[in-house]
Amino acid sequence: MSLIDLECVRRLLESEQPDATLVFVRGDCVVLPADEVDDAHKGLVIAHRDELAARLPQDGLSEEALEDLATRLDNIARDLGA
Q1: CB-based burial of residue 19 (10 Å sphere; 0-12 exposed, 13-18 middle, 19+ buried)?
Q2: How would you list the strands of the sheet with 20-25, edge to edge?
Q3: Of the residues 15, 22, 28, 44, which has the fewest C-beta atoms closer than 10 A?
Q4: Are 61 and 4 in contact (CB under 8 A)?
Q5: What does the alpha-carbon distance between residue 65 and residue 61 come to, in Å, rounded to a whole number?
Q6: CB 15 within 8 Å of CB 22
Q7: pLDDT tens readout for residues 32-78
Q8: 24 is in which domain, residue-wise?
Q9: Three-class HEC string of 25-73
Q10: pTM as predicted
């Protein structure tokens, strides 16, 4: 079972927040503005949208690329012990 799925990645990439951050909170992936991530959850930050955006293709993401990204972010969440 994935901790971070395709929907989590879409919510992060499509967020209206300029500093959108993907955080794993109590078993769920949550997209928050960076300034709303409290000290208790800073260790569970999976990714910042601006960091991902710099590595994404300019012509957009295919479903396959989104799935690959979700898998990589899921591995990060697992490495953090989420």
Answers
A1: middle
A2: 28-33, 20-25, 45-48
A3: 28
A4: no
A5: 6
A6: no
A7: 999 999 888 888 899 999 988 877 777 777 888 889 899 999 998 88
A8: 6-79
A9: ECCEEEEEEHHHCCCCCHHHEEEEHHHHHCCCCCCCCCHHHHHHHHHHH
A10: 0.84
